[in-house]
Design goal:
By secondary structure, this protein is mostly helical. The chain has a domain at about 190-305. About 75% of the residues lie in helices and about 0% in strands. The chain contains 4 helices and no strands. It has helices at about 30-50, 60-230, 230-255, 290-305. Helix 2 runs antiparallel to helix 3 (about 230-255). The longest helix is centred in the middle third of the chain and has 170 residues, at about 60-230. The chain is rod-shaped. Keywords: Coiled coil.
């Protein structure tokens, strides 16, 4: 053996017989057909060597052949001796390198073990610190959750209170709208009554104007009759006219006053001014009433008629 100590166990080597494969086995190293071809070639080589004449070979050629064979064998032996002589140095260098590698491996393992121990301590300390931090964060999160829950409850309570207040405001608004609707209905009724009263006043004014015109016409006739100085006719006409025109004259003398009744509504809001006043409505466009001098003249004429 060139390398190693030559004490290797030969039991580790096993012998396996060579089996000739079948021609149908494509994966075989050599088949029977190839083996037959090889045998045929060997047979032809042997037959050709039998026919060869040794006498044709000269002694010089044989010596030259053996000389070259010995020379090549000697060169091979020299190379083998050189390899054998260099093997201890190579083995020593390899052993030195292996020892250096083993030493480096031992140092690395020692350093790795020491660093692993220190890393284990550091990792344990880091885990303990992380556990403490996580515990604090858990407590902080629990406290924040409690605060958020309280704030949520307060927010719900405030929302409920605002909703209740809004419901009350809506109810008050609906009540106010109902009151306004009732008040508007009352106003419409009052407007209808006012329109009806206005129409009645206009009708009375027109009737009064007609009566005034009639009275004026009658007054002119009476003046003409009085100018005729017929006492009997005057007295009879006077009595008849006094009986007929006494209501009309009383209406003409009496001023037109129209007072609207005050209607109170249950839905009328407090503090509001009533749109209907207690002051009477007087028509300023109607004709002026007779003055005192005119009344005196009429009384004088009546007294004169009574004297006749």
């Amino acid at each position: 053996m060139i390398y190693g100590d030559g004490e290797e166990d030969l039991a580790c080597y096993t012998y396996s017989s060579f089996n000739v494969r079948d021609d149908n086995d494509d994966e075989a190293l050599i088949t029977q057909r190839q083996f037959k071809v090889l045998i045929e070639k060997l047979d032809s080589l042997i037959s050709s060597s039998r026919d060869f004449s040794y006498e044709a070979c000269s002694k010089a050629a044989v010596e030259a052949f053996f000389h070259s064979l010995i020379k090549e064998h000697q060169a091979n032996l020299d190379k083998a001796n050189q390899v054998v002589s260099n093997s201890p140095a190579l083995c020593g260098a390899m052993a030195t390198k292996m020892e250096a590698l083993i030493s480096d491996a031992k140092k690395f393992i020692t350093k790795f073990q020491s660093s692993a121990g220190s890393n284990t301590l550091m990792a344990n300390e880091a885990i303990v610190g992380l556990n403490t931090i996580l515990q604090r964060e858990k407590e902080a999160l629990a406290q924040a959750h409690t605060e958020l829950q309280n704030e949520n409850d307060n927010f719900k309570a405030s929302i409920s209170a605002k909703i209740t207040k809004l419901s009350e405001c809506l109810a008050a608004k609906n009540n106010l709208m109902d009151q306004l609707a009732a008040h508007n209905t009352t106003i419409k009724v009052h407007k209808a009554k006012l329109n009806q009263t206005t129409k009645e006043i206009k009708g009375l004014q027109s009737e009064r104007a007609v009566v005034k015109s009639c009275v004026g016409y009658v007054h002119a006739l009476l003046s003409n009759i009085l100018d005729s100085h017929d006492p009997i006719l005057i007295i009879s006409i006077r009595r008849h006219l006094v009986d007929k025109f006494r209501p009309a004259i009383a209406m003409l003398i009496k001023p037109i006053l129209s007072v609207m009744p005050k209607v109170k509504s249950e839905s009328e809001p407090k503090g509001k001014v009533n749109i209907f006043s207690d002051n009477p409505i007087i028509d300023n466009n109607e004709a002026k009433e007779p003055d005192e001098e005119e009344l005196k003249r009429r009384k004088a004429r009546e007294a004169e008629i009574d004297g006749h």
